[in-house]
Amino acid sequence: MDTTRSIERKEFKGIDLTKFLLAILVVAGHTHPFKDVTDPVFIQIWEKSLLLVVPCFFMAAGFFLFPKVYQSADKTTRLNAIWLYLKRIISLYIYWTLIFLPVTFWHYANDDLVIKKDIILFIRGTFFFGENFYSWPLWFLLSMIYSLIFTGFLMFIDLRIKTIFYISIVVFAIAMVFNFLVTGETNNEFLLMLGKIIKYLFLTGRLFTGMFYLLVGGLIAMRKIRISRLAMVWMVLLALTFQLFEVKILSPFLFSLLPITLFCLIVDLKLEKIKNGLFLRKCSTVMYFTHMIIFFLYTLIFTTFPYFGWDAFLVAVIVPILLTPVIIRNEERFPILKQLFG
């Protein structure tokens, strides 16, 4: 998704194309076109592939944000750049939470819970999960909000960007611990109780993963992280080895080497034959934000809940692609379109 509207950007067609393809993967992850495939090897590869998507979106955001933030040595100017970007993300989160409200209310009207319980679920979903019914993609924005607030605070107390990055690694490691605890795969009573609390409050540790990937993207853009091709090969081998021979907490932590390697490769892609990077950028954003609404309407009108399959996937991909040129042509006339889609 494109959350970098206010940032002067060069043409990075590799990022534009990759985000477009990854947005299609997001749709696939939510509509389950391969729901009838039972081969365990395919399922494992498919599920791991889906885990590459959001980290790349975070890194792309950081890639365009942090060079803008650190182009000045003045702390006030840096904090102002963070604040302007944060306001943009908060606005997006509010807009899209409101847009999804009819879907959310539809769900509440059809569940068996009392109104007070639904209100509690909405507050928890909005402020701690980053999602309500079918608004699953919005957790990305909430993670961005919390990550930027914490990063801005660390900048305010005059920490260097590399120190902030090291802190983000610790936060990321804590997120991996949270992900393990919510599974309940332990016999320790205290850890089981802690896992239940974390699951009730945050669902998983995913909200705390954004800061790390944002900083990685920023440091790559600022050339403070330079990874050679040989290092990339070793990173991929290390990550894949720990996916084959799974070690709790450590394997998910090292999986992060795969999206980082992927992002390093796509940054340098020239792709001169691709002429319409704007369309790819805009389409990935439109698809990311609208596909669940389209999916919801399709299943509501033509099938029944819950429903997943190839037809739903294709509809949720094709409709945003068709909407994108309409949005591009009319965003000057209707400024709200720029607010919603960048």
Describe the structure.
With 342 residues, the protein is mainly alpha-helical. It has one domain. It contains 16 helices and no strands. It has helices spanning 13-31, 40-50, 53-69, 75-99, 101-110, 115-129, 139-156, 161-181, 189-202, 210-221, 229-244, 250-255, 257-267, 277-302, 310-330, 335-341. Helix 3 crosses helix 10. The N and C termini lie close together (9 Å). The relative contact order is 0.16. The model is unreliable at 4-8 (pLDDT under 50).
How many strands, which pairing sense, and closed or not: the largest β-sheet? none
Strand content: under 5%
Stretches where pLDDT is under 50 for at least 5 consecutive residues are 4-8
Calculate Rg over CA atoms: 20 Å
Provide the number of structural domains.
1
Rounded mean pLDDT is 92
User: Can you count the beta strands?
Assistant: 0
Count of DSSP helices?
16
What separation lies between the terminal Cα atoms?
9 Å
Helix content: over 70%
What pattern of helices and strands is seen along the backbone?
HHHHHHHHHHHHHHHH
Specify the overall morphology: globular
Overall structural class, as computed from helix and strand content, comes to: mainly alpha
